[in-house]
Batch of 2 targets.
Target 1
Amino acid sequence: MSTFQAPKGTYDLTPPRSATFLAVREAISAPLRDSGYGYIETPGFENVELFARGVGESTDIVTKEMYTLTTKGGDQLALRPEGTASVLRAALEANLHKAGNLPVKLWYSGSYYRYERPQAGRYRHFSQVGAEAIGTEDPALDAELIILADQAYRALGLRQFRILLNSLGDKECRPVYREALQTFLRDLDLDEETRRRIEINPLRVLDDKRADVQKQLTDAPKLRDYLCDACKAYHEEVRALITAAGVAFEDDEKLVRGLDYYTRTTFEFVHDGLGSQSAVGGGGRYDGLSEMIGGPELPSVGWALGVDRTVLALEAEGVELDLPAVTSVYAVPLGEEARRVLFGVVTELRRAGIAADFAFGGRGLKGAMKSANRSGARYTLVAGERDLAEGVVQLKDMESGEQTAVPLTEAAAELAKRLG
Ligand code: ATP
Ligand code: MG
């Protein structure tokens, strides 16, 4: 170990577990790529103001969890705590919404930073794959995103996840509900901080995890009873489309989520094997966000799935991803001349698209064969002085143990044939 360790709340991805992370990112993004979502990448940091406005001044993310810094030039920046505000900012900046092709559908994958209390499934650096569909109000778009997330989790082999669904109303009906909720909450027995929250963001109080708070909320007014006709119809259509797709969900009228920008459709994916950090992903519609960051009216919907917690969920369910061995052929040279010759064969194989590796460092046969085994390679190529004198290499099938001498000049072609 060196003098240094990964900072508190962070961890490194190292082989072999890192392969699972790559596979999860791949599995989550595959359905998006197949559904018209284009890849977008934005900086790891933004002007702090983007998140203050775009995520919301009253959210935990902005008030407690953001890593902020002042540059030598005096700019106020923040490490990105989430993806949506940045993606929308970038889409507006590139005028993607003006190309006359709405919705603008984008997917992303990257690192996010939140100064949280580290615990299992909760880190200060974590990674998400996300999707945003910008500029269109259409229940089918909300349904598409929920269905694609479900498809991704299923493709990974996850079964113990549930989809929670709610509608948060829009700028017509939400304010009426907000006021009714505030009136109800003001009469409860709550601590100072929560009382302040009632005035700034009362819906968040519904999200309070404490049992004594939850007990008092049993008779709280329900948003469902306040939804305007347009919101009700929209929500019913989303529900009908997901149901028709055979995707199971649960209506959860307490689901409000931590970000200020959500309107109408709101959803969360939870996994029952994860203990208290049970949310593996979440998202919803954010019709007002564009205007909040100075853009035009662009009703949009999106989600972000947490890669770290998805990997934990796979581990909790005991799902082993079917990760093909990385190396197909492993070459073991015995002696100087064989080293040169086999290194040439390995290069040839690689250029032919066959994954090959090599016993570097002039190790003995025993150690090199151990590495060959560990590599998962299907075939090993071994050659010593005598083989070279005869113009052959020994090709060993690691599954059957069978070994055959193959002319050196035909080794690459023979392997290509055998590996299909
Ligand atoms: P939580 O309620 O657990 O704090 P959140 O509502 O803050 O989650 P989102 O902002 O919706 O989470 O982010 C989407 C997903 O990103 C989460 O469902 C989770 O899988 C992941 N995520 C969020 N924060 C963290 C974190 N600190 N560590 C690991 N994963 C995280
Ligand atoms: Mg959080």
Note: The chain has two domains: 17-173+227-317, 329-418.
Target 2
Amino acid sequence: MAKNIRRIGVMTSGGDSPGMNAAIRAVARSCAYYNIECIGFYRGYQGMIEGDYEELNARSVRNIITRGGTILKSARSKEFMTKEGRQKAADVLKEAQVDAMVLIGGDGTFRGGKALSAEHNIPIIGVPGTIDNDISGTNYTIGYDTALNTVVDAIDKIRDTASSHNRLFFVEVMGRDAGFIALNSGIGAGAEEILIPEEDLGLERLLDSLERSRRSGKTSSIVVVSEGDKIGKNVFELAEYVKKNLPDYDAKVTVLGHIQRGGSPSCFDRVLASRLCVRAVELLLDGKQDLMVGFVNNKVETCTLDEALQSKHEINKDLLRISDILST
Ligand code: ATP
């Protein structure tokens, strides 16, 4: 155990995701276990700049493992993007005698952490927390599993009403640059088509597929659309386009929006957050820094923050084929 780490800071940053509280709890409890102090910074980097923090002990994180959101709040900080902002943050860390930081968030959070570490030599470990699952170096990010289950639950409910009225529903889900949520929730909820940013299906193919579904006697159709899909139309324009070209369809739109971020974390996300954050604290105590902890093939692994930032977490395109076969 490196002698110089006596106090570790933790914060959540960027978009919130279910399981962030389980992560905070795991950091605070691991610190208590190893007899070091833990400080929680509110509102991500903005709270760090403003000195908005409090000490977390094993008891102050009681009963939060079940809660969605983040007790430390999250924020996006423009000021931290500047050298002056990061200088202020480093001054606060020095004054608060914080020796190292665990940063829970997405790629922007890790970029900020890298800058802080490079300019002020503050040991950083990143923990991937985002519902989008778009971080390289881990098979799963904290919050993704819960979001996926929320989406499947919502689509199941939409299916009930869709099949009662022979309707077609376009369901927009989160994922500006990554189709993980759309692809997996689409298969899980038995969607007829799935539109993702990684693949341009084309409007003609969409019409053909819906027409085939209708002719094959389907009483309802669900198309799951990722926010960032590349077909060139937003979900409302898509519904209008289909109504114009396939007048037999009564097409409706549901945008799931922020319900996807909320809710009590799934057991998977709680265990994932717990395992990643215990390791994050242990790595700092071992004198490691500038790493991200991830979950790869059922094991907690590490990669450098650079590796996590440089490559893209690719979706498994074979899932599109699976979806095609099963929506016959
Ligand atoms: P999500 O994937 O949920 O959006 P994120 O961590 O990528 O999460 P961002 O808003 O991109 O969310 O980043 C969080 C914060 O990290 C930003 O508000 C900013 O303060 C800081 N940050 C992002 N990029 C940089 C950068 N290049 N340099 C310094 N700080 C950065």
Note: The chain has a mean pLDDT of 95.
